[in-house]
Automatic annotation (TrEMBL):
Gene3D superfamilies linked to this entry: 3.20.20.220
Key words, A-Z: Oxidoreductase
Top-level taxon in the UniProt lineage: Bacteria
Name the UniProt record assigns to this protein: Methylenetetrahydrofolate reductase
Organism, as annotated: Lacimonas salitolerans
Amino acid sequence: MALLNFKRRDDAVKPANRQVEAFLQGYSIEVMPRTAEKVEDFRDLLPQGTRVYIAHIDGTPIEDMVATARRLARDGFNVMPHFPARIIKDRATLANWIAMYRGEADVRQALLLAGGVAQPVGAFHSSMQLLDTGLFGDFERLHVAGHPEGNRDIDTDGGDALVMEALRWKQGFSERTDAQMALATQFAFEAGPIIAWADAIRAAGIDLPVHIGIAGPAKLQTLIKFAIACGVGPSLKVLQKRAMDVSKLLLPYEPTDVIAALAAHKAANPDFNIEAVHFFPLGGIKTNAQWAIDNGGTAGVPANQTTG
């Protein structure tokens, strides 16, 4: 049945870049219920134990989210659904969602974030408020959002004062909880700003490990559309420059350059605080999974990240 055979590394073709192979170990990927429905069997695409985030877009019924979580958990994946604060009506709704996830899919991991809607539907507008409810007290892993190129929804002046204040609060929370915590970031296309941001937050006393957001292979026009919609900042110029090159305009974008640069930096600086890669499969799950496999990302979630 399997389309891809995940052999032991010593039986497989060795990827050319060992640094990239090492950097991709423990990568995660994001799906939505409607995109997951198009995948016949995730076990044909992803290494066993891969962490799969389930994005909760406003308007998606919680029943669809839970059904996707149940399917992925049944097939042996570490499931991490989104909890977007601004689409959760109240504490009772949040408690009900958690109970459904726990009861039907044994979910023990969550990504808490503000969410992309401008106006909250109810009592919550930030991940900090969700954490403060105490309802995630028995979760084993909690991720919160990071923004390597800033977030103008939070710091409207283009600075980072409020974002850093929020990170310091989350750092403090991580020291009070037994859950493993990490920053899962928005995607970016250039290694330099990512490295500078990661170093800056560490210098500021934020030692939460970073799971860096990377856009998977996709058509250039698709990436530019998503990048603008998601507020990607300085590294958007990488795509814009590529779009001006007629020889590259029609070729699909691949994250090879940015990952290779980050992998090289990690190899040279082992204590670099980026712990894992998180893929946004904007060009399709199958395409992204194949790119990861081709570049050595076939080891699943390392022991120090596995939960449940």
